[in-house]
Amino acid sequence: MAISPEPTSENQIDFRAPPPSPIAAGRRSTVTNDEILTEFLHHSLRVPDLILPDKVFPRQKFTESPPVIDFQSLNSKESDPIRKILDSIPGTGCFQLVNHGIPLETIGAALAVATGVFRVPLEKKAAVTRSLERPYGFEEGHGEEGESEFSEEFVWCRDEVLKLKMEGIWPLGYSNFCEKMETLLWEIEKVAEKILLALWESSQRRSICGNDMIQGQEVGSVCCLYKHSRNVPADRWYDVIRMLIRGTDFSHALCLHVCAGASEFHVYSKKGWVSFIPDKGALIITAGDQIQALSGGNYKHVIGRPIFEDEKEDSISMAFLYSPPSTINSSNSKTKREKSVSLGQQALVALVLTLIYQFFAYMFKKF
C-alpha cells in the first residue's frame, strides 16, 4: 500500500540558504584570494600623482639678476640706462636701482620705527584691521597664535582716519612713525617721478608719453610694511599665494621695494615665478598695472616679494606703491583755462569800463 505524503502547513516558511561564497576549496584558498584582492585594491585605489600645470601655477625659476641702473645716469642724455629699463620690464618686469640718493639714515630710521607697529598688542590691532571699507591698517590674521611663522603686514598711507585710529591704539609712537615714514616717502616719490618722466620722454610709444594718461589714487602713494619671521623656508607656496592675492589691492605705476639684507627676491607674473639675489643697497623697482595698461600689455605687471633666510631676528621690508598725482595734467589745463578769457567776458568788461568812464566824465563836468 502506497504511503501518502504528509500534509504541509500553509504557514511554513520557504527558507533558502544563501549562495556559497566564491572561495575555492582547499586550505590555501583564503590566502590565494586575499593576495588577488589585495593586488586589485592596490591598483584600483592608488591615488594618481597630480601636477599643477605651469600655466596655472608657474614653477620657480632662478635667473640672472635684472639690470642695475645708476639713478644719476638718468640725468644724462645717454639712452643706454633707459634702454636697459625698457628691455627689462617686458622680460622680468623689474630692475635694480643704485646710487638713488636716498640717505641710508632716512631708510634706517624708517625701518627702525616700523618695528614698533608690529609690537602693538593683538587685541588693539583688531580695531585697525583691513576690510573692504577700510583698505588700510593691519592685515587680517596679524600674528595670531598658530600663524606666527608667517609674515605680518601693515598698510600705511596719508589717511586721516587711519592716523586717528592708530594714535588711539599707539599714542606714544605713531606720530614719530609717521614723521619718519613721511620723510622716506618724500624721497621715494622723487625717485619714482623721475623714473616715470625719463621713461615717458624716451619711449617711442606715444600712448604712454602723456602725464594725463595715468590715473592716480586719491590718497596718493601707499606703503606696505612686512615683518618677515626668521627661519621661514623660501619656497613656501603659501607666500606665493599671498603675493598673488594681496599684491593687487592697489592700482599703481611703479612699486619701489626697500629690502636691505634680503637673501633672495621673488617676482611673480603670468610668465613664471623668477628668483634672483638682489644687489646690496639697491632698490628693486617692479612694474605696476598702470604701466601695463598704458603700454597695451607690452610691459607686464609683476608682483615682487623679498625673502629673508637664516636671519637671527625678524626683518622688516617696505613696498611703496607709487601712483603719480592725477591732478598733474588737469591742473595745467585748468590754469590754461583760467588764463583764457572768452569773447563775452571781454565785451562785458568793456561795457563796465565804458559806464565807469561816462560816470566820472559826467561828474567832472558837473562839478
Helix and strand arrangement:
Layout: H1 29-44, E1 60-62, E2 68-70, H2 80-91, E3 94-98, H3 104-117, H4 122-125, E4 137-138, E5 152-157, H5 160-169, H6 174-202, E6 222-228, H7 237-246, E7 254-258, E8 264-269, E9 272-276, E10 283-287, H8 289-294, E11 303-307, E12 315-322, H9 327-339, H10 343-366
Derived structural class: alpha+beta
Beta-strand content: 15-25%
SSE sequence, one letter per element: HEEHEHHEEHHEHEEEEHEEHH
Strand order of the largest sheet: 2-3-10-7-12-6-5-4
Tell me about the largest β-sheet: 8 strands, mixed
Low-confidence blocks of residues: 26-31, 205-213, 327-339
Report how far the terminal alpha carbons are from each other: 173 Å
Indicate the radius of gyration in whole angstroms. 36 Å
Question: What fraction, in percent, of the residue positions are helical?
Answer: 25-40%
Number of helices: 10
Count the E strands.
12
The residue-averaged pLDDT reads: 75
Global geometry: elongated
Describe this entry's structure for a reader.
- The strands form 2 sheets. The protein has an 8-stranded mixed sheet. Strands 1-9-8-11 form a 4-stranded mixed sheet, covered by helices on one side.
- With 367 residues, it is of the alpha+beta class.
- Strand 2 (68-70), helix 2 and strand 3 (94-98) form a beta-alpha-beta unit.
- It has helices at 29-44, 80-91, 104-117, 122-125, 160-169, 174-202, 237-246, 289-294, 327-339, 343-366, and strands spanning 60-62, 68-70, 94-98, 137-138, 152-157, 222-228, 254-258, 264-269, 272-276, 283-287, 303-307, 315-322.
- The model is unreliable at 26-31, 205-213 and 327-339 (pLDDT under 50).
- The protein has 10 helices and 12 strands.
- Helix 3 (104-117) crosses helix 6.
- The radius of gyration is 36 Å and the shape is elongated.
- 38% of the residues lie in helices and 16% in strands.
